[in-house]
Amino acid sequence: QPFIDALEHSANLVWLQVFSVGVDPKAYPSLRARGVTITNAPGANAEPIAWTAMGAILWFGRPFRHWADAQERHAWDPIHYDNAPRDLTGQTMVILGVGQIGGRVARHARYLGMRVIGIHRHPAPDDPVDETYPPSALPAILPRADWFVVACPLTDETRGMVDADLLARLPRGAHILNLARGAVVVEPALIDALRSGHLGGAYVDVASQEPLPPESPLWDAPNLIISPHNAAISASYPEASAECFFANFSRWRRGEPLEGLA
Questions:
Q1: Active site residue 181
Q2: Candidates 157, 210, 239, 256; catalytic one
């Protein structure tokens, strides 16, 4: 708070670079009202988040849970071919938001041989997806999804977007990963879909209330992995974030538009 107070009283401040990737568009209201430019560090954490997402996919897609349980029981309990998991190759991933993070997840998923469908408001020719559709097409696309990755910004449009109706459109046994913000996914609907068995599993790095209180039912939802908004943790992040700042500083000195406007 002292740092924020100092910013508020910095009469000559014209630009604030935030080292985080996501910035609430309603943050720093008085600075915005004064016309201070606020930028973040887009893409600085995309790679570690993508690898975390792939780890969750491998955990759910391969029998690690079974093997870990068997190890805990000291039981030699191999899986037989009548219960063998499906190959990840050939499965379909739908990504809501093909930005820096969603794009990296898409690339890694394609390395595994998945078919990737991007849901993106502003698709680009070089998006690393096999198909792309606008957000209005999401309800019609979700029945094709084995994996649904939520990687969009939190806006008035996306708040509560992934609700019970959208989750019901996923095939039974599908998986969802929330790499965005907790408020994009309606948590009671997610918990119900996990408890009913409609969803095969979920990974969430975010929650509607952070820190997640101990009494939250999210903790005990079946087949759910929770990380404490920590998917981006990486020794390389401070350097990557600093590089975003220095690149923007060079643009600022040249009078060019800054990147990562928040």
A1: yes
A2: 210
Burial environment of residue 168 by CB neighbours within 10 A (0 to 12, 13 to 18, 19 or more)? middle
Active-site residue identified among 108, 120, 175, 181: 181
Question: Are residues 99 and 154 in contact, defined by beta-carbon separation less than 8 angstroms?
Answer: no
Q: Does residue 256 have an active-site annotation?
A: no
In contact, 151 and 122? CB cutoff 8 Å: no
Q: What is the pTM of this model?
A: 0.90
Low-confidence stretches of the chain (pLDDT beneath 50):
none
CA distances to 19, 21, 40, 234, 236 from 239, in Å: 10, 13, 14, 10, 6
Per annotation, catalytic residue among 110, 115, 169, 229: 229
Res 20: pLDDT = 79
pLDDT at residue 1, rounded to an integer: 61
Pair of tokens at residue 51: 């690898």
Transcribe 31-88 into DSSP letters.
Answer: HHHTT-EEE--TTTTHHHHHHHHHHHHHHHHSTHHHHHHHHHTT---PPPGGGPPPPS
